[in-house]
Amino acid sequence: SQQGEEDPQALSIQEGENATMNCSYKTSINNLQWYRQNSGRGLVHLILIRSNEREKHSGRLRVTLDTSKKSSSLLITASRAADTASYFCATVGLTGGGNKLTFGTGTQLKVEL
Amino acid sequence: DGGITQSPKYLFRKEGQNVTLSCEQNLNHDAMYWYRQDPGQGLRLIYYSQIVNDFQKGDIAEGYSVSREKKESFPLTVTSAQKNPTAFYLCATNPGGAGFTDTQYFGPGTRLTVL
After folding, report:
1. A100, A23, A104, A7: which is closest to A67 by C-alpha?
2. Which comes out higher in pLDDT, residue B102 or B115?
3. For B99, which of A4, A99, A104 is closest by C-beta distance?
4. Dist CA A86 CA A80 (whole Å)
5. Paired sense of beta strands B87-94 and B110-114, if any
6. What residues form DSSP beta bridges with A102?
7. What whole-number distance in Å separates Cα of residue A69 and Cα of residue A78?
8. What would the pLDDT profile of A64-101 be if each residue is shown by its tens digit?
9. Which of B50, B103, B111 to mutate to test binding with chain A, by most A CBs within 10 Å of its CB?
10. Residue of B nearest to A91 (CA)
């Protein structure tokens, strides 16, 4: 089963604009991670935010986490054509069945020149 | 993709045949994982191993088998019992210790097509 639902499913923006994608999840978490996947390739880890953190930055990336709403957002500022990829959130739960990494369905981002 | 290799990149198989996908890592990581990705979907966990000679089923283990005889290697066999095996298969590793709570490192993937 998939824990996360991402919104929007697809996003097309112009280079230089900001891109925001959202992730909602169902059960309590230990942490939430964002990954990027270029077409036909493996995933690359971007950022990890723990359940007791509200915001985290890494370069042009900003992630927020609202555990009361069970949601997270990923903001990419000043986007570039090279940011074109699919972005996935993944959660690590607290209980039962081990701390498995459960992925959302992903947002496809296209950054046009 | 770091120090994780998956081979082959593309694999074609006839219905009714078993096929083994290779995953090798030189990161000295304890934990290894296999995921399946279908078009437009997220990843689903097939099997994982946190230590040599031990592995556990993930969410969709039916029709798959694994072994973990060496720390560096975690091959996945897709058996004829897997009803819809056409998919993109991704192997990942994790240093271990904290287990799943740490970052996972992914290989480049193998695309399996059943003819």
Report:
1. A23
2. B115
3. A99
4. 14
5. antiparallel
6. A91
7. 27
8. 999 999 999 999 999 999 999 999 999 988 765 445 78
9. B103
10. B101
